[in-house]
């Protein structure tokens, strides 16, 4: 029997789900919801932080990260995981930095880089998933990919386009019965908690960004736009163990990850969401604590 509540997450690389959505996934799985994760690339061009893995070529790193995400999702308890279009269909596009130090699109990338993917083709891979899983809530990045990584931006484009196409009765009936996603959410950092964490980190002599001045920069979406927060506290152990599975990418002793751990421990800290499209949350003075709040979840009927 299909669960009443169904959640779909679209992330760019292995580790993104654990660094940004682990508490959300763990909570809804524990509550009996259907949770599906779609990862768009293998993360073949991620920065390798472990010296003993520095010899891995991009294809080898991609295969290695398959093992890492399997371990992480095992800790979270998620079993419904797919790579967009199949394993290795889209390659990590890589990332560079512009003169201001911001994330930017590299001049050179693989031929099958996700950034270069045909938008309709990539979206149709996701349309098939949406129509099969029938999620009421879809989570992805904001239009800037949260911080500008080209694969995050492309994941946003693909997810938004797919949600639109999946609801159209005239689009690709061969991909299944049309399905309307009720609410699309864009994940982001809980800016107020990151500011508190930054202050606490500096008091401890920890500088997460030694080469950049973050005093005047935003740590996430405008707090006034945050519509929901899933607290990390109840799932802190799961979050940390899942992220630690990515030994090629995550070093808990580095200043940034020490700062990240400080943020997670602040009471009330959590994974923040803004409304990207669809049904608004019921009006409230504070962000909702349930991503499905206000959505009718009793039926699974496709669009007429």
TrEMBL record:
The keyword Plastid does not apply. Keywords: Hydrolase, Metal-binding, Zinc. Its EC number is 3.5.1.103. GO terms for molecular function: metal ion binding; N-acetylglucosaminylinositol deacetylase activity. The keyword Phosphoprotein does not apply. GO terms for biological process: mycothiol biosynthetic process. It holds the Pfam family PIG-L. NCBIfam families: mycothiol_MshB. This is N-acetyl-1-D-myo-inositol-2-amino-2-deoxy-alpha-D-glucopyranoside deacetylase. It comes from Tessaracoccus bendigoensis DSM 12906.
């Amino acid at each position: 029997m299909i669960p009443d509540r169904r959640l779909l997450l679209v992330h760019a690389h292995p580790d993104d789900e654990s660094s940004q959505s682990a508490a959300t996934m763990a909570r809804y799985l524990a509550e009996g919801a259907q949770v599906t994760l779609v990862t768009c690339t293998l993360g073949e061009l991620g920065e390798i932080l472990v010296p003993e893995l520095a010899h891995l070529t991009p294809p080898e790193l991609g295969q290695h990260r398959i093992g890492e995400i399997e371990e992480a999702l095992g800790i979270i308890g998620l079993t419904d995981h797919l790579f967009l279009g199949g394993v290795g269909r889209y390659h990590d596009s890589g990332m560079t930095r512009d003169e201001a130090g911001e994330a930017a699109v590299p001049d050179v990338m693989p031929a099958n880089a996700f950034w270069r993917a045909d938008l309709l083709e990539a979206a149709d891979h996701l349309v098939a998933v949406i129509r099969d899983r029938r999620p009421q809530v879809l989570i992805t990045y904001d239009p800037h990919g949260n911080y500008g990584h080209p694969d995050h931006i492309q994941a946003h484009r693909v997810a938004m386009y797919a949600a639109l196409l999946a609801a159209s009765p005239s689009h690709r009936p061969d991909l299944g019965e049309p399905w309307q996603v009720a609410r699309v959410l864009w994940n982001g950092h809980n800016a107020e908690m990151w500011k508190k964490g930054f202050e606490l980190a500096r008091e401890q002599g920890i500088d997460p960004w030694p080469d950049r001045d973050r005093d005047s920069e935003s740590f996430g979406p405008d707090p006034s736009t945050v519509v929901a927060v899933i607290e990390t506290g109840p799932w802190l152990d799961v979050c940390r163990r899942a992220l630690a599975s990515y030994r090629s990418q995550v070093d808990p002793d580095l200043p940034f990850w020490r700062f990240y751990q400080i943020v997670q421990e602040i009471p009330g800290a959590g994974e923040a969401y803004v409304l990207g499209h669809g049904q608004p949350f019921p009006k409230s003075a504070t962000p909702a604590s349930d991503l499905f709040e206000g959505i009718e979840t009793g039926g699974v009927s496709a669009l007429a």
